[in-house]
């Protein structure tokens, strides 16, 4: 009996630590298995959690510089941290939404740059992507007219001058915003491959406020051409000043806000081919205290009857070289006969008065000459194209 008792005690000693804990090999194996199961379960649960989502794919190329890069928390826990750098290590600015569900870039991206974005969600999952933006074959800027904060006449068209010719004209037009107060309807027309204009159907009303934005940065204009920078301008329509030049009477009447304020004698282009002043609407352009009139700039050589003459108080009416300017040598003919090469000659006193009393965008109407109509594509002859043709546009040509 004693032997059996000892065996029983020895067995008890092997299966108990004396404090109620099971330390048998079987128990140890069971504990390790439980820990492994818990770890596996935790790992599996972590694996099921989703990393943040990106608006571009990893290793993407040709990414548009105009669209913000966004990162989104895919499970709704919210984003913990987002960093974005360019290939030089420079940080790109961005901001979180109020609920931390999204993050978006707040600065414009550059052409041909490589960016790396790392995002970590509050659930602990993180992800890193790299992408490269568009690398244009070449770019173009756009110059706008009139200049910002200017006051111009009722005939002023809005000008967009590109350094290179866009192939996708419609995309360019769609990227332009024109805001008028009060509202005015208008339309685009391309005067040349690089010159776009916008004007209303009728002359502006005085006091109209105009804001223009050309949002061309990042714009694919076709043929590998992209816009290199946005541009904007704003202007106000001033007084309604209209000058009427009548070849029958050899006079110019200046009307301001529908009231006649001055009449002056003029001498127009001589009645020979190439010198007759064209009829039609002209828009006042640049103005100069002094200007070299050089016939060779439009193809008339000096030995073929051309000229190089310095004139005073010159007001531009066309890109082809027609000006209202001081002509003391023809005062004797002003009011009675035509002697010029196409310009509107006036006396020194009248030329100075005119320069000081008209402004860019004012309109001049010439009538009763034998010179045909100034082409609408001349540069300052926009109003010589009928509205039906102008409003139909030519973006698809």
From TrEMBL:
Identify the GO cellular component terms for this protein.
extracellular region
The record's keywords, sorted A to Z, are: Acyltransferase, Cell membrane, Cell shape, Cell wall biogenesis/degradation, Lipoprotein, Membrane, Palmitate, Peptidoglycan synthesis, Signal, Transferase
Q: Matching InterPro entries, A to Z?
A: Big_10, LD-transpeptidase, LD_TPept_cat_dom, Transpep_catalytic_dom
Q: Which Pfam families match?
A: Big_10 (PF17964), YkuD (PF03734)
Q: Which residues form the signal peptide?
A: none
GO terms for MF: acyltransferase activity; peptidoglycan L,D-transpeptidase activity
What positions constitute the catalytic site?
325, 343
Domain (L,D-TPase catalytic) spans: 241-367
Q: What is this protein called?
A: DUF1093 domain-containing protein
Q: Which species expresses this protein natively? A: Corynebacterium phoceense
């Amino acid at each position: 009996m004693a032997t059996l008792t000892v065996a029983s005690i020895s067995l008890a000693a092997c299966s108990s630590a004396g404090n109620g804990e099971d330390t048998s090999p079987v128990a140890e194996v069971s504990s390790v298995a439980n820990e492994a199961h818990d770890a596996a379960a935790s790992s599996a649960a972590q694996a099921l959690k989703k990393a943040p989502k990106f608006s571009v794919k990893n290793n993407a190329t040709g990414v548009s510089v105009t669209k913000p890069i966004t990162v989104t928390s895919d499970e709704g826990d919210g984003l913990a941290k987002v960093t974005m750098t360019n290939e030089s290590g420079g940080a790109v600015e961005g901001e979180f939404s109020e609920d931390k569900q999204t993050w978006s870039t707040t600065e414009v991206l550059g052409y041909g740059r490589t960016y790396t974005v790392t995002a970590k969600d509050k659930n602990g999952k993180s992800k890193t992507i790299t992408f490269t933006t568009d690398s244009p074959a070449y770019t173009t800027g756009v110059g706008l007219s009139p200049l910002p904060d200017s006051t111009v006449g009722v005939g002023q068209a809005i000008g967009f001058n590109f350094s290179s010719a866009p192939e996708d004209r419609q995309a360019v037009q769609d990227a332009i915003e024109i805001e008028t107060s009060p509202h005015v309807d208008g339309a685009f027309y391309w005067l040349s491959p690089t010159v776009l204009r916008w004007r209303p159907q009728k002359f502006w009303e005085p006091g109209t406020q105009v804001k223009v934005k050309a949002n061309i940065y990042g714009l694919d204009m076709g043929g590998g051409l992209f816009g290199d920078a946005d541009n904007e301008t704003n202007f106000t329509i001033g007084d309604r000043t209209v000058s009427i030049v009548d070849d029958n009477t050899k006079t110019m009447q200046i009307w301001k806000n529908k009231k006649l304020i001055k009449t002056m004698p003029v001498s127009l282009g001589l009645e020979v081919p190439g010198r007759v002043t064209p009829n039609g609407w002209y828009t006042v352009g640049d103005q100069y205290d002094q200007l070299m009139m050089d016939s060779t700039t439009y193809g008339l050589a000096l030995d073929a009857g051309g000229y190089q003459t310095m004139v005073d108080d010159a007001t531009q009416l066309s890109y082809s070289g027609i000006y209202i300017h001081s002509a003391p040598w023809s005062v004797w003919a002003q009011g009675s006969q035509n002697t010029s090469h196409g310009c509107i000659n006036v006396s020194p006193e009248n030329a100075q008065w005119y320069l000081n009393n008209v402004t860019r965008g004012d309109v001049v109407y010439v009538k009763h000459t034998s010179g045909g109509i100034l082409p609408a594509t001349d540069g300052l002859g926009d109003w010589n194209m009928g509205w039906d043709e102008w409003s139909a546009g030519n973006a698809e040509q």
